[in-house]
Amino acid sequence: MEIAIQNVGRKVTADSLDAMFSTYGEVHVVAFIDDANDGRRSAVVTMPDVGAASKAILRLDGHIVDGCALVLSHVPMKRKKGLPAYFKQFRHFLKRRNTFYPKKNNYEHR
Question: Which residue has the higher pLDDT, 29 or 81?
Answer without folding.
Answer: 29
